[in-house]
């Protein structure tokens, strides 16, 4: 039996009829066609499906869509403003923080979320905030550098 | 040094913007109208005879459109090396590991497909389960493959020089053992595919693969289709590291079911299935006997290795050779003997992973060399410098070090880490260690015996001269090949990277063996450079006819035509271009004839300008059996220094600092080179300290998740001081060679050597868990 829910995703309101066992990842990808949210494990280990739910980064594979009824959600598609990239996206591009790119959407959402709460994090605070987002390609260094550089740019 | 505009820079990746915004499409993101979803039945038993497979109930389930077993798929054997084709799409006689594929279902949605899979009934007769090398090699052990009694899947015996004779000259002879653990690729994107068979009999497969070429050939062979009817396309790939380099049963099953139903079929691996499919790093059991003179000269090595191969061969034939051959450098080693045995067991199949075959060998031997240096009272850096090969040296197994910045690498990490101030001077519990390594820049020979080009490339200019389309079947899997190849095309043609559109990963774009053995920069790079030069020549020839300037007096650079002996009057050509583009903004102006104008002239006089390039290495390496594995047109090399803290109360190791120097030849993109170095070190750190695929007594993977199989997080990796060493490789495009895999080589032994420096114990079994190190420290205290 499907249930009608309301989600505000990237400032757009959607009404979706969802089966109660559907995860938020599935609904974002399959019903809303927001394919930037990735699924790497489906059990909350890898962080590739990270979205921001009511201001907090969460693994969307661990959230049932019905639990998110009435929430505000930000996905990677909602991070840039039109053609102009968010400073975190800009520094990820410029500083080589992206390789295969599969962890990137989740990583960027964790990073932007951190900078909203803590605009000037230390390196250790950045590492802590990103520790739930696995990356097998980069060794994390350029990702951490990109977040720190974005923090500097957002200061001005 | 020649000045370049596009290469040797830090230009952002061509795909970075798409990946940063979520626009980049991976295979799992694709869908088609009328698409079916597939799921596979995999064996719950590690070793059993198949008595009967009953698919009646599955076929009857509403929504099911196809159910296939070996009866539909046939019995064609495939694999990686034609000498060891030992896989079938679906098992017919028996299952050989937990996860072996038995059947597949295509249905209107994934839930239905999975439910149908659960309705397939298989009757088994259980067989003895052989989970380790000892039981697989025991006398009377059941053969996992009938053709291989004794379960030896491959055996290698090589001797270069004379090991026994050389030992007579040695003052120190040591024997040590070393073993790693089975690793998982740990890429973030599970394998996925989408197959579409159309009414004209053309099959297209989109897949998360490292090699569209090998997948195309395998599918054509297994399904009995002409190669020309099979197109394989690789969308963006979320990491590969080796395990995605060969075809998998899911890809073939999807193609088969699409062919049978006439509808597109999409299939995905769960994370657990990634672990079951594996094809990742083997577990190696090495024994090294090394002889050294008292002046520190390394004289001889006898390396014996047993590999736990799992149920099938996959890349294992290459792995077993690499486990021997990759110790031939970077030290002068006149006598090397190798005995290797790859053993079938009832576990998921191992294959290639970053640093293919050489990582455990390198780890164990570099640790032994460190021990020997200590016995000789020599500084480990000095000991290595003394034995180091130089550019132009040829190894005892006939690898030609056509460029080798090994000394520069070692000096780079020695000075970069402030080695002299730290070695032997750190407080107890803190340590510093060094190690070296080298790796191929592309396998010298394809996986199947062939005269094929290893890489082709085509460049097509748009008719307005404004765009350079590069077509290559190479595989961007995250390592950055699209960017590197785009940069090479732009540089060789004389335009900017923004002018180049890279189209890659599609068998329609030519032949490229793919992303494995660190081959894309050197091999695809050569083909791309040739294609760009061919394009440039055609444009200049067309221009020459119009301007009466000899081709050799012209060049293209920075987007404009360079006239070496004075500028001719080209106003007629400019007027022509401007007239053709009346009303357009951005008309060419200024004192230089632009590439756009020149390309337009070429189109108008000759038609579409298409430049081609094709590369294969010349005759390389020795003539002995197995000489093809490890032979390469060029070798990258590296050195690392690692600093650790060991908590003596718990055995916990913290990596404090890593200094890495890598000779990648001429660096095409410096940011990418650093990224490969840092990523390699991270994978090495994981294998050294905590990665291990574990099994229960029935052969089931005990930790088939990224929660229980732990890969490094942002909290585990320190910042790496990266030192790029640039030798000028004569066999590389613009002097470039590899970095993607070689950089992992010294990581594990540098960590092990640092741990010894910190607490005085040698660990010869990975991973160095707190428990293992604590026990070793206790053991040492007792003595």
Task: Write up what this structure looks like.
- Helix content of chain A is 33%, strand content 16%.
- Chain A is of the alpha+beta class and 156 residues long.
- In chain A, strand 1 and strand 2 (12-18) form a beta hairpin.
- In chain A, helix 2 (87-94) crosses helix 5.
- The mean pLDDT of chain A is 97.
- With 783 residues, chain B is an alpha+beta fold.
- A seven-stranded mixed beta sheet of chain B has the order 3-5-1-12-9-10-11, sandwiched between helices. A five-stranded mixed beta sheet of chain B has the order 7-15-14-13-8.
- Chains A and B meet through helix 2, helix 3, helix 4 and helix 5 of A and helix 1 and helix 19 of B.
What's the SSE pattern of chain A?
EEHEEEHHHH
Mean pLDDT level of chain B: 97
Biggest sheet details of chain A: 5 strands, mixed
Global structural class of chain B: alpha+beta
Average predicted confidence as pLDDT of chain A: 97
Oligomer: heterodimer
Q: Separation of termini of chain B? A: 58 Å
Strand elements of chain A, count: 5
Helical proportion of chain B, percent range: 25-40%
The gyration radius over C-alpha positions of chain A equals 15 Å
Uncertain runs of chain B are none
Helix coverage percent of chain A: 25-40%
List the helices and strands and how they pair.
The complex is a heterodimer of chains A (156) and B (783).
Chain A: E1 3-9, E2 12-18, H1 24-31, E3 50-53, E4 56-59, E5 72-74, H2 87-94, H3 104-117, H4 123-129, H5 141-155
Parallel strand pairs in A: 1-5
Antiparallel strand pairs in A: 1-2, 3-4, 3-5
Helix pairs in contact in A: 2-5
Chain B: H1 16-21, E1 36-42, E2 48-54, H2 56-60, E3 64-68, H3 70-73, E4 94-95, E5 101-107, H4 110-119, E6 121-126, H5 133-137, E7 152-160, H6 163-167, E8 172-179, E9 192-197, E10 203-207, H7 212-223, E11 230-233, H8 249-261, E12 265-268, H9 271-277, E13 283-292, E14 298-310, H10 316-325, E15 335-344, H11 359-375, H12 380-387, H13 406-416, H14 419-422, E16 430-440, E17 455-461, E18 468-472, H15 481-493, E19 500-503, H16 520-547, E20 554-557, E21 560-563, H17 571-580, H18 595-606, E22 610-615, E23 635-647, E24 652-663, H19 670-689, E25 720-725, H20 747-759, H21 770-782
Parallel strand pairs in B: 1-12, 10-11, 14-15, 18-19, 24-25
Antiparallel strand pairs in B: 1-5, 2-4, 2-6, 3-5, 7-15, 8-13, 9-10, 9-12, 13-14, 16-23, 17-18, 17-22, 20-21, 23-24
Helix pairs in contact in B: 7-8, 11-20, 15-16, 16-18, 19-20
